[in-house]
Amino acid sequence: MEILWFALAILCWVLFFALEGFDFGVGMLAPVLGRDDHERGAAIRTVGPVWDGNEVWLVAAIGVTFAAFPDWYAALLSGLYLPMVLVLLALAARGVAIEFRGKVDTPAWRRRCEITLAVSSFLTAGLFGAVVAVATTGLALDPGGAVVGTGLERTLGPLLSWPALAGAVLGVLAALVQGATFLGLRTTGPVRVRARRTAVGSAVAAGVVAAGVGVAVGGTTMLFAVVVALLAVVTAVAAASGYEGAAFAAATLGVVGAVVAAFTAHVPVVLPSTLDPAASLTISGAAASPYALTVITVGAVLILPGVVAYQAFSYWVFRRRVASERVA
Questions:
Q1: At a CB cut-off of 8 Å and minimum separation 6, what does 182 contact?
Q2: How far apart are alpha carbons 264 and 183 in whole angstroms?
Q3: What is the pLDDT of residues 75-129, one digit of tens each?
Q4: Is the separation of the CB atoms in 24 and 95 below 8 Å?
Q5: How do 322-323 and 269-271 pair as beta strands?
Q6: Which of 177, 72, 173, 74 minimizes the C-alpha distance to 129?
Q7: 3-state secondary structure of 188
Q8: Cα-to-chain-centroid distance, residue 263
Q9: Rounded to an integer, what is the distance from CA 124 to the centroid of its chain?
């Protein structure tokens, strides 16, 4: 049961990063690839019907982690509460920017919303990349599973390390690649053309950074980094050749591979201790009681299929391309 819920927790995190990744990318790219109000609006409309549904998987991922692995949840959120608060604020600003952009019919208002959307998407992608990198390399855990330290050293120290910086850069680049390939797949006209060019450049940059991180870390991480770098090359080639569906699929697979590699890097350890390896949290040590796992399994069987079905239906309904050129 513990292994099943660990796999389910990883699945929820994978779905969140894979689906919200292109939302963040579109948010960053819309003000850049759209040269006028109409083009920027077309780019944002590609994610307008689905961004909030994609965000549900963050709630699911955190909920599953809290219910099935309370010690893991407690250590992560207490050790990284400052960046997580910043993430929540950025997500709130992003949602307001998307939903309120059309509420005031003035170019200045829409432009402010677009800038807010770009900045909040950039911060969210970068902070999540840093958080995942820190969670992979570990926190200063004592034998009781509590994060030690005081003041800014405890809250900001992990984010000032080179793994956190590399994770932030990769998070932003991955979102840009997914966003560019998604816009190429879901728009027509000038935004589509610019998105395809952007996808090539951002994919090459992401592949180089991923390969560099793999070489620096070594071990099994190097193998996953090579796979991600190869998928980035496939993305660039597919985008340059006009195979937009293949480019988006390869970019998404790269994100999935990176997330799975991060969460399974030290299995059965789920959160390494940088002070003493014996104090690291393991799957069995961080899991809830067997009775609690049984109860939440019943809830998952009843709820998750409906969530998946609804989200699949919404993607099917809004599957058509959005025109970025002006249609008479």
A1: 22, 25, 26, 46, 47, 248
A2: 31
A3: 888 888 888 899 999 999 999 999 999 888 899 999 999 999 999 999 999 999 9
A4: no
A5: unpaired
A6: 173
A7: strand
A8: 13
A9: 8
The pTM for the full model equals: 0.92
Question: In 10 A of CB 49, how many CB atoms?
Answer: 12
Closest CA to 238 of 177, 187, 290, 283: 177
Q: How far is CA 81 from CA 13, 74, 85, 139, 243, in A?
A: 18, 10, 6, 13, 41
- Which pair of tokens denotes residue 111? 């432009």
What does the DSSP assignment read for 195-232?
HHHHHHHHHHHHHHHHHHHHHHH-THHHHHHHHHHHHH
* CA 102/CA 203 separation, integer angstroms: 32
**3 state SS of 281:** strand
Side chain identity at residue 247, one-letter code: A
- Interhelix angle 190-217/37-45, rounded to 10 degrees, is 60
CB-neighbour burial class of residue 79 (10 A; exposed 0-12, middle 13-18, buried 19+) = buried
Each residue of 103-112: b (16+ CB within 10 Å) or e? eeeeeeebee
Give tens-digit pLDDT for 169-217. 999 999 999 999 999 999 999 999 999 999 999 999 999 988 888 777 7
